[in-house]
Amino acid sequence: MLGSVILEVSMALTFLYSLLALLCSAAAEGLESFSKRRSHNLAKALRLMLGEDGAELLWQHELLNSLRRESTLPGSPKVYPSYLSSRVFALALLDIAENAKEVGKTLAEAPAPFGPILRSLGRTAGSDVQKLSLAVESWFDDTMERTSGWYKRHAQRVIFIVAFSAAAVLNLDSVMLGRVLYHNGALREKVLAQAESYVKAREARGVESPTPAPANAATATPATPSPSATRQTDPSARAEVTLHELASLDLPIGWDATPNAVNGAPHNALAVVMKVLGLLATALAASLGAPFWFDILNRLVTLRGSVKPPPKQDGNEAPAPSS
User: Fold this and answer.
1) For 221, phi and psi rounded to 5 degrees?
2) Is residue 222 reached through a cis peptide bond, with omega within 30 degrees of 0 on the bond before it?
3) For the chain, how big is the Rg over CA atoms in Å?
4) d(CA 152, CA 45)
5) Is 315 helix (H, G, I), strand (E, B) or coil?
6) What average pLDDT does this structure show over 283-309?
7) What is the pTM of this model?
8) Which of 176, 157, 191 lies closest to 281, judged by CA?
9) pLDDT of res. 214
Protein backbone atom coordinates (compact mmCIF):
# COMPACT_ATOMS: atom_id res chain seq x y z
CA MET A 1 0.00 0.00 0.00
CA LEU A 2 2.79 2.41 0.95
CA GLY A 3 4.63 1.73 -2.29
CA SER A 4 1.48 2.39 -4.26
CA VAL A 5 0.97 5.74 -2.54
CA ILE A 6 4.56 6.78 -3.18
CA LEU A 7 4.17 5.81 -6.85
CA GLU A 8 1.00 7.89 -7.10
CA VAL A 9 2.60 10.91 -5.43
CA SER A 10 5.57 10.63 -7.80
CA MET A 11 3.22 10.44 -10.77
CA ALA A 12 1.25 13.49 -9.62
CA LEU A 13 4.44 15.53 -9.09
CA THR A 14 5.73 14.41 -12.48
CA PHE A 15 2.54 15.69 -14.10
CA LEU A 16 2.98 18.98 -12.27
CA TYR A 17 6.60 19.29 -13.44
CA SER A 18 5.51 18.54 -17.01
CA LEU A 19 3.00 21.38 -16.98
CA LEU A 20 5.40 23.79 -15.31
CA ALA A 21 8.10 22.91 -17.86
CA LEU A 22 5.63 23.68 -20.66
CA LEU A 23 4.83 27.02 -19.03
CA CYS A 24 8.52 27.90 -18.67
CA SER A 25 9.24 26.86 -22.26
CA ALA A 26 6.48 29.15 -23.55
CA ALA A 27 7.73 32.03 -21.37
CA ALA A 28 11.34 31.51 -22.49
CA GLU A 29 10.23 31.43 -26.12
CA GLY A 30 8.38 34.70 -25.63
CA LEU A 31 11.48 36.26 -24.08
CA GLU A 32 13.60 34.99 -26.98
CA SER A 33 11.29 36.57 -29.55
CA PHE A 34 11.66 39.85 -27.67
CA SER A 35 15.41 39.76 -26.97
CA LYS A 36 16.48 38.26 -30.37
CA ARG A 37 19.23 36.31 -28.62
CA ARG A 38 19.88 34.01 -31.58
CA SER A 39 20.33 37.01 -33.87
CA HIS A 40 22.76 38.65 -31.44
CA ASN A 41 24.75 35.41 -31.13
CA LEU A 42 25.04 35.11 -34.92
CA ALA A 43 26.24 38.70 -35.23
CA LYS A 44 28.71 38.16 -32.37
CA ALA A 45 30.07 35.00 -34.02
CA LEU A 46 30.68 36.82 -37.32
CA ARG A 47 32.48 39.62 -35.48
CA LEU A 48 34.74 37.04 -33.82
CA MET A 49 35.43 35.39 -37.17
CA LEU A 50 36.00 38.51 -39.27
CA GLY A 51 36.47 41.40 -36.87
CA GLU A 52 34.20 44.41 -36.59
CA ASP A 53 35.04 45.85 -40.02
CA GLY A 54 35.00 42.49 -41.78
CA ALA A 55 31.64 41.52 -40.31
CA GLU A 56 30.10 44.83 -41.30
CA LEU A 57 31.52 44.47 -44.82
CA LEU A 58 30.01 41.00 -45.04
CA TRP A 59 26.59 42.21 -43.84
CA GLN A 60 26.62 44.85 -46.58
CA HIS A 61 26.84 42.16 -49.25
CA GLU A 62 23.52 41.76 -51.09
CA LEU A 63 23.18 38.11 -50.10
CA LEU A 64 23.26 38.95 -46.38
CA ASN A 65 21.86 42.47 -46.42
CA SER A 66 18.64 41.09 -47.93
CA LEU A 67 18.24 38.87 -44.85
CA ARG A 68 18.17 41.83 -42.47
CA ARG A 69 14.88 43.57 -41.86
CA GLU A 70 13.92 46.98 -40.63
CA SER A 71 13.44 47.37 -36.89
CA THR A 72 10.00 48.18 -35.56
CA LEU A 73 11.59 50.91 -33.42
CA PRO A 74 12.19 54.19 -35.30
CA GLY A 75 15.86 55.05 -35.66
CA SER A 76 17.06 51.56 -34.65
CA PRO A 77 19.48 49.57 -36.85
CA LYS A 78 18.30 46.69 -38.97
CA VAL A 79 17.55 43.41 -37.20
CA TYR A 80 19.96 40.57 -37.92
CA PRO A 81 18.59 37.17 -38.99
CA SER A 82 18.66 34.34 -36.46
CA TYR A 83 20.05 31.84 -38.99
CA LEU A 84 22.58 31.94 -41.81
CA SER A 85 23.54 28.97 -43.97
CA SER A 86 27.18 28.11 -44.49
CA ARG A 87 26.64 28.15 -48.27
CA VAL A 88 25.43 31.77 -48.29
CA PHE A 89 28.28 32.77 -45.98
CA ALA A 90 30.89 31.18 -48.27
CA LEU A 91 29.37 32.70 -51.42
CA ALA A 92 29.30 36.18 -49.90
CA LEU A 93 32.82 35.95 -48.50
CA LEU A 94 34.34 34.67 -51.75
CA ASP A 95 32.38 37.22 -53.77
CA ILE A 96 33.75 40.05 -51.62
CA ALA A 97 37.24 38.61 -52.09
CA GLU A 98 36.59 39.01 -55.86
CA ASN A 99 37.33 36.75 -58.80
CA ALA A 100 36.70 33.49 -56.96
CA LYS A 101 37.47 31.55 -60.12
CA GLU A 102 41.11 32.62 -59.87
CA VAL A 103 42.07 31.61 -56.39
CA GLY A 104 45.55 33.10 -56.58
CA LYS A 105 44.19 36.51 -57.46
CA THR A 106 41.46 36.17 -54.83
CA LEU A 107 43.99 35.60 -52.08
CA ALA A 108 46.24 38.40 -53.25
CA GLU A 109 43.62 41.10 -53.69
CA ALA A 110 41.07 40.22 -51.02
CA PRO A 111 40.30 43.15 -48.72
CA ALA A 112 41.27 42.80 -45.07
CA PRO A 113 40.59 40.64 -43.14
CA PHE A 114 39.44 38.26 -45.88
CA GLY A 115 42.90 37.91 -47.47
CA PRO A 116 44.67 36.33 -44.46
CA ILE A 117 41.64 34.14 -43.75
CA LEU A 118 41.40 32.85 -47.31
CA ARG A 119 45.13 32.32 -47.53
CA SER A 120 44.98 30.20 -44.37
CA LEU A 121 42.00 28.18 -45.60
CA GLY A 122 43.38 27.97 -49.14
CA ARG A 123 46.61 26.20 -48.19
CA THR A 124 44.85 22.85 -48.43
CA ALA A 125 42.57 23.89 -51.31
CA GLY A 126 45.33 24.84 -53.72
CA SER A 127 43.81 26.31 -56.87
CA ASP A 128 40.52 24.45 -56.46
CA VAL A 129 37.77 27.00 -55.83
CA GLN A 130 35.28 24.30 -54.84
CA LYS A 131 37.62 23.01 -52.13
CA LEU A 132 38.17 26.56 -50.89
CA SER A 133 34.42 27.13 -50.71
CA LEU A 134 33.98 23.87 -48.76
CA ALA A 135 36.78 24.92 -46.38
CA VAL A 136 35.01 28.24 -45.73
CA GLU A 137 31.72 26.43 -45.12
CA SER A 138 33.39 24.00 -42.71
CA TRP A 139 34.99 26.91 -40.83
CA PHE A 140 31.59 28.59 -40.54
CA ASP A 141 29.87 25.37 -39.38
CA ASP A 142 32.50 24.81 -36.67
CA THR A 143 31.97 28.34 -35.39
CA MET A 144 28.19 27.92 -35.41
CA GLU A 145 28.52 24.80 -33.25
CA ARG A 146 30.21 26.92 -30.58
CA THR A 147 27.54 29.58 -31.05
CA SER A 148 24.87 26.94 -30.47
CA GLY A 149 26.60 26.08 -27.20
CA TRP A 150 26.40 29.73 -26.13
CA TYR A 151 22.69 29.80 -26.84
CA LYS A 152 21.96 26.50 -25.08
CA ARG A 153 23.76 27.62 -21.91
CA HIS A 154 21.95 30.95 -21.99
CA ALA A 155 18.58 29.27 -22.62
CA GLN A 156 19.17 26.89 -19.71
CA ARG A 157 19.85 29.81 -17.38
CA VAL A 158 16.77 31.66 -18.62
CA ILE A 159 14.52 28.62 -18.17
CA PHE A 160 15.81 28.06 -14.62
CA ILE A 161 15.21 31.71 -13.70
CA VAL A 162 11.73 31.58 -15.23
CA ALA A 163 11.01 28.27 -13.46
CA PHE A 164 12.13 29.55 -10.07
CA SER A 165 10.16 32.79 -10.54
CA ALA A 166 7.03 30.85 -11.51
CA ALA A 167 7.50 28.45 -8.59
CA ALA A 168 7.93 31.35 -6.16
CA VAL A 169 4.93 33.31 -7.48
CA LEU A 170 2.65 30.27 -7.61
CA ASN A 171 4.12 28.72 -4.44
CA LEU A 172 4.88 25.46 -6.24
CA ASP A 173 6.84 23.98 -3.36
CA SER A 174 7.69 20.32 -4.10
CA VAL A 175 8.07 19.46 -0.42
CA MET A 176 4.73 20.99 0.54
CA LEU A 177 2.86 19.60 -2.46
CA GLY A 178 4.33 16.13 -1.97
CA ARG A 179 3.17 16.17 1.65
CA VAL A 180 -0.33 17.31 0.67
CA LEU A 181 -0.63 14.70 -2.05
CA TYR A 182 0.58 11.97 0.27
CA HIS A 183 -2.02 12.69 2.95
CA ASN A 184 -4.96 13.70 0.71
CA GLY A 185 -6.07 10.62 -1.20
CA ALA A 186 -9.04 12.29 -2.91
CA LEU A 187 -6.91 15.13 -4.26
CA ARG A 188 -4.26 12.65 -5.34
CA GLU A 189 -6.81 10.59 -7.27
CA LYS A 190 -8.12 13.69 -9.03
CA VAL A 191 -4.65 14.76 -10.14
CA LEU A 192 -3.87 11.23 -11.30
CA ALA A 193 -7.09 11.04 -13.30
CA GLN A 194 -6.20 14.29 -15.07
CA ALA A 195 -2.65 13.07 -15.66
CA GLU A 196 -3.90 9.86 -17.28
CA SER A 197 -6.39 11.79 -19.41
CA TYR A 198 -3.64 14.16 -20.46
CA VAL A 199 -1.37 11.29 -21.48
CA LYS A 200 -4.15 9.63 -23.47
CA ALA A 201 -4.94 12.91 -25.23
CA ARG A 202 -1.29 13.38 -26.19
CA GLU A 203 -1.09 9.82 -27.47
CA ALA A 204 -4.24 10.35 -29.52
CA ARG A 205 -2.74 13.46 -31.10
CA GLY A 206 0.51 11.61 -31.73
CA VAL A 207 -1.07 8.74 -33.69
CA GLU A 208 -3.40 11.00 -35.57
CA SER A 209 -2.81 10.55 -39.30
CA PRO A 210 -2.01 13.69 -41.27
CA THR A 211 -4.67 15.09 -43.52
CA PRO A 212 -4.02 13.85 -47.06
CA ALA A 213 -3.06 16.52 -49.55
CA PRO A 214 -5.62 17.33 -52.26
CA ALA A 215 -5.00 16.14 -55.78
CA ASN A 216 -4.44 19.72 -56.96
CA ALA A 217 -2.09 20.55 -54.07
CA ALA A 218 0.31 22.37 -56.37
CA THR A 219 -2.30 24.97 -57.27
CA ALA A 220 -4.48 24.86 -54.18
CA THR A 221 -4.82 27.97 -52.06
CA PRO A 222 -2.96 27.56 -48.74
CA ALA A 223 -5.38 26.88 -45.92
CA THR A 224 -5.79 29.42 -43.16
CA PRO A 225 -4.27 28.14 -39.89
CA SER A 226 -6.92 26.91 -37.49
CA PRO A 227 -7.33 28.59 -34.10
CA SER A 228 -6.04 25.43 -32.39
CA ALA A 229 -2.90 25.43 -34.54
CA THR A 230 -2.35 29.09 -33.74
CA ARG A 231 -2.69 28.35 -30.01
CA GLN A 232 -0.06 25.63 -30.31
CA THR A 233 2.49 27.99 -31.86
CA ASP A 234 1.75 31.20 -29.94
CA PRO A 235 3.78 31.26 -26.68
CA SER A 236 1.29 33.45 -24.81
CA ALA A 237 -1.62 31.19 -25.81
CA ARG A 238 0.29 28.07 -24.77
CA ALA A 239 1.14 29.67 -21.42
CA GLU A 240 -2.52 30.56 -20.88
CA VAL A 241 -3.64 26.99 -21.62
CA THR A 242 -0.99 25.56 -19.28
CA LEU A 243 -1.96 27.93 -16.46
CA HIS A 244 -5.55 26.77 -16.89
CA GLU A 245 -4.39 23.15 -16.63
CA LEU A 246 -2.48 23.94 -13.43
CA ALA A 247 -5.46 25.73 -11.90
CA SER A 248 -7.77 22.80 -12.73
CA LEU A 249 -5.68 20.45 -10.55
CA ASP A 250 -7.12 22.09 -7.39
CA LEU A 251 -3.74 21.86 -5.70
CA PRO A 252 -2.93 24.36 -2.91
CA ILE A 253 -1.21 26.67 -5.37
CA GLY A 254 -0.53 30.28 -4.47
CA TRP A 255 0.04 31.98 -1.14
CA ASP A 256 -2.67 31.77 1.50
CA ALA A 257 -2.65 34.39 4.26
CA THR A 258 -4.95 32.28 6.45
CA PRO A 259 -3.21 31.30 9.73
CA ASN A 260 -1.70 27.81 9.64
CA ALA A 261 -2.62 27.35 5.97
CA VAL A 262 -0.67 24.56 4.31
CA ASN A 263 0.38 26.94 1.53
CA GLY A 264 0.99 29.93 3.77
CA ALA A 265 4.21 31.84 4.30
CA PRO A 266 6.87 30.18 6.49
CA HIS A 267 7.03 31.48 10.07
CA ASN A 268 10.40 30.21 11.32
CA ALA A 269 13.92 29.64 10.06
CA LEU A 270 13.49 25.92 9.42
CA ALA A 271 10.27 26.53 7.49
CA VAL A 272 12.03 29.17 5.37
CA VAL A 273 14.85 26.75 4.55
CA MET A 274 12.38 24.00 3.63
CA LYS A 275 10.37 26.42 1.51
CA VAL A 276 13.44 27.56 -0.42
CA LEU A 277 14.56 23.95 -0.94
CA GLY A 278 11.08 23.02 -2.16
CA LEU A 279 10.99 25.90 -4.64
CA LEU A 280 14.52 25.12 -5.85
CA ALA A 281 13.59 21.47 -6.35
CA THR A 282 10.60 22.52 -8.45
CA ALA A 283 12.68 24.95 -10.53
CA LEU A 284 15.42 22.38 -11.14
CA ALA A 285 12.84 19.78 -12.14
CA ALA A 286 11.08 22.14 -14.56
CA SER A 287 14.40 23.17 -16.14
CA LEU A 288 14.89 19.56 -17.32
CA GLY A 289 12.22 20.20 -19.93
CA ALA A 290 8.72 18.96 -20.72
CA PRO A 291 9.82 16.07 -23.01
CA PHE A 292 11.85 14.57 -20.16
CA TRP A 293 8.93 14.65 -17.73
CA PHE A 294 6.33 13.50 -20.25
CA ASP A 295 8.48 10.46 -20.99
CA ILE A 296 8.66 9.65 -17.27
CA LEU A 297 4.93 10.31 -16.89
CA ASN A 298 4.15 7.82 -19.66
CA ARG A 299 6.28 5.19 -17.90
CA LEU A 300 4.63 5.86 -14.54
CA VAL A 301 1.13 5.65 -16.02
CA THR A 302 2.03 2.29 -17.55
CA LEU A 303 3.59 1.11 -14.29
CA ARG A 304 0.59 2.20 -12.22
CA GLY A 305 -1.75 0.42 -14.61
CA SER A 306 0.17 -2.80 -14.10
CA VAL A 307 0.20 -2.64 -10.27
CA LYS A 308 -3.13 -0.89 -9.66
CA PRO A 309 -5.21 -3.00 -7.24
CA PRO A 310 -8.69 -4.15 -8.32
CA PRO A 311 -11.58 -1.92 -7.16
CA LYS A 312 -13.13 -2.85 -3.85
CA GLN A 313 -16.54 -4.53 -3.94
CA ASP A 314 -19.46 -2.59 -2.58
CA GLY A 315 -20.74 -4.06 0.66
CA ASN A 316 -24.30 -4.01 -0.71
CA GLU A 317 -23.40 -6.28 -3.60
CA ALA A 318 -24.61 -9.82 -3.37
CA PRO A 319 -21.87 -12.34 -2.70
CA ALA A 320 -20.85 -14.59 -5.52
CA PRO A 321 -22.75 -17.91 -5.49
CA SER A 322 -20.76 -20.71 -3.94
CA SER A 323 -20.22 -23.85 -5.94
Assistant:
1) -75, 130
2) no
3) 28
4) 15
5) coil
6) 87
7) 0.67
8) 176
9) 37
